[in-house]
């Protein structure tokens, strides 16, 4: 019985005695009743204390042993800047920690001269098993992982002690960290460059294989964008024929030649009065066709639209493995631009349409 229970028992006994005394005085009990009451007041606390001690029973042996057992002696040793391998060759983690251990019951005749060495070896082996499977890109994340792995007391391989580690830090050498940062920047720049290259390839492919594949495709594309301007589309047939012929490095079809002549402002004469044609260039080059196209549009020498359109056409020709013709076109019209007061609606629409196509 605890001290609090004993105090409560005595208090209740005294209170009951006072109540019984008041009742006896009021009822005028006989003398023998007062003797019985006094005996009960004396015997009742003793009986209660005895019953409580019997119910509690003896103290467990295990508890007694715990009270008398000697405390476990724990030791510690600080290790700093230990190189541990990573998943990448030549990139090591720098490991530091406080190693704690306690000795187990030694075998008879078994003497341990350097328990700190065994504890450090056990901790480093556990840490190395983790670091050699991790890339050296996130040392701070690995630090928290090792803090959890090394937080438990585990026996070493010899079974002489149990060891753990705390205050774990994991870093990289400064030169290695700078190299990894540079590699990350290069990977990001490469991803952006490949994205831009894919976009340009998709743009050239769309112009060469869809919009400017032939004059009919160019007309359909133009009508789809300007379905309310059919008359203007008819007027620009010569322009579209010249542009598609230059983009595909081919001659203008004979059935469309009269449209080009009309675009140039020289309507073809009737068949009965048509004079003999002047000797033509036996081998006209794509740049010659493109020059005629620019002249028909009124894009004089030095006009920025000549060099701009020439570059776009050269890219389309180059995409079809016609490098020589593309170089000739780009060399022919590569000159310092002089910006005109306005630009043609056709050029503006082609550039905008090509620039908003989804990537392939």
UniProtKB/TrEMBL annotation:
The organism's place on the tree of life at top rank: Bacteria
Protein's UniProt name: Uncharacterized protein
Keywords: Membrane, Transmembrane, Transmembrane helix
Chain ranges passing through the membrane: 7-25, 31-49
Region Disordered: start-end pairs: 264-289, 320-360
Start-end of Basic and acidic residues biased regions: 345-360
Keyword Transmembrane helix found: yes
UniProt feature, compositional bias: Pro residues: 268-285
């Amino acid at each position: 019985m605890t001290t609090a229970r004993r105090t409560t028992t005595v208090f209740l006994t005294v209170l009951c005695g006072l109540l019984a005394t008041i009742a006896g005085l009021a009822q005028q009990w006989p003398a023998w009743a007062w003797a019985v009451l006094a005996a009960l007041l004396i015997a009742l606390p003793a009986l209660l204390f005895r019953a409580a001690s019997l119910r509690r029973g003896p103290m467990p042996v295990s508890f007694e042993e715990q009270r008398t057992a000697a405390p476990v002696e724990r030791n510690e040793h600080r290790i700093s800047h230990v190189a541990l391998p990573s998943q990448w060759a030549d990139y090591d983690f720098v490991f530091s920690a406080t190693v704690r251990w306690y000795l187990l019951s030694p075998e008879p005749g078994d003497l341990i001269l350097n328990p700190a060495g065994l504890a450090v070896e056990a901790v480093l082996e556990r840490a190395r098993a983790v670091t050699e499977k991790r890339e050296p890109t996130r040392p701070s994340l690995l630090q928290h992982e090792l803090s959890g792995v090394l937080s438990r007391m585990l026996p070493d391989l010899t079974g002489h002690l149990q060891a753990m580690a705390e205050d774990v830090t994991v870093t990289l050498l400064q030169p290695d960290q700078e190299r990894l940062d540079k590699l990350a920047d290069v990977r990001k720049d490469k991803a952006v460059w490949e994205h831009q290259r894919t976009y340009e390839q998709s743009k050239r492919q769309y112009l060469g294989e869809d919009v400017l594949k032939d004059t009919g495709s160019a007309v359909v594309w133009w009508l789809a964008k300007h379905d309310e301007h059919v008359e203007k589309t008819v007027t620009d047939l010569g322009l579209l024929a010249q542009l598609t012929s230059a983009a595909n490095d081919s001659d203008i079809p004979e059935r469309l030649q009269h449209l080009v002549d009309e675009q140039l402002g020289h309507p073809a004469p009737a068949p009965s009065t048509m004079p003999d044609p002047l000797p033509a260039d036996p081998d006209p080059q794509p740049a010659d066709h493109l020059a005629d196209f620019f002249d028909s549009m009124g894009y004089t020498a030095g006009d920025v639209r000549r060099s701009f359109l020439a570059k776009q056409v050269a890219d389309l020709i180059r995409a079809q493995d016609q490098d020589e013709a593309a170089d000739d076109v780009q060399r022919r019209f590569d000159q310092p631009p002089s910006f005109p007061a306005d630009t043609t609606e056709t050029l503006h629409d082609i550039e905008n349409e090509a620039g908003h196509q989804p990537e392939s």
